[in-house]
Amino acid sequence: MMDVSIYKQVKNALQISNEYLIEFMDALPQMAWTGSPSGKILYFNKAWYDYTRIPAGPTDGWLKTVHPEDSFQVIEAWNKSLQSGDYHMECRIRNGADGSYKWFLEQAMPIRDANGEIIMWFGTYTDIDNEKQDMEPF
User: What catalytic activity is recorded (predicted)?
Assistant: First the structure.
C-alpha cells in the first residue's frame, strides 16, 4: 500500500518549487523562457510579454516577433541546438509598443537528467542593440 501522505508532500514540494521558479524568472531584468525537450516553448517571463506586448499566456506565435530576415536562421539554429545542446543566436525582436526592432542575443541551455537526456531548456534574451548599433559603419 502506498503512503498517500508522502505523495502529497512531494506533489506540494514540486508545486512550490515551480512557483519559486516562475517568481525568479519574472524577477529577471531580461526576457526569459523555458522549453520542452523537443523544443516547444512552455513559458515566457513577464519581461517577454512586457516587451513584445503579446497577451500573456499562450506561447505559440513567438516566431512572429522575430524580424522576418532573421526568422529562418533562428529556426535553423534552434533545430540544430536540439541535437547539440548548444544555442546562441543574435536576432531582432519586435517591440510591441512601437513596432521597432532591437537586437538580442538569445542563449539557451538544456537541463539534463542523470542519463544525460534533456528534460528542459532555459533561455534568455539579452539586449545587445547598443553594441550592434556601435558596430554599424557611419
Answer: ATP + protein L-histidine = ADP + protein N-phospho-L-histidine
3-class state of residue 137 by DSSP: coil
N-terminal to C-terminal alpha carbon distance within the chain: 75
Residue 117 makes CB contacts below 8 A (sequence gap 6+) with 37
pLDDT of residue 2: 63
**Model-level pTM?**
0.83
As a whole number, the mean pLDDT across the chain is: 89
pLDDT-derived band at 138 (thresholds 50, 70, 90) equals: low
Query: Which string of b and e fits 35-56 if b means at least 16 CB within 10 Å?
Result: beeeeebebbbebbbebbebee
CATH of the domain at 131: 3.30.450.20
Element (H, E) at 119: strand 118-127
The count of domains in the chain is 1
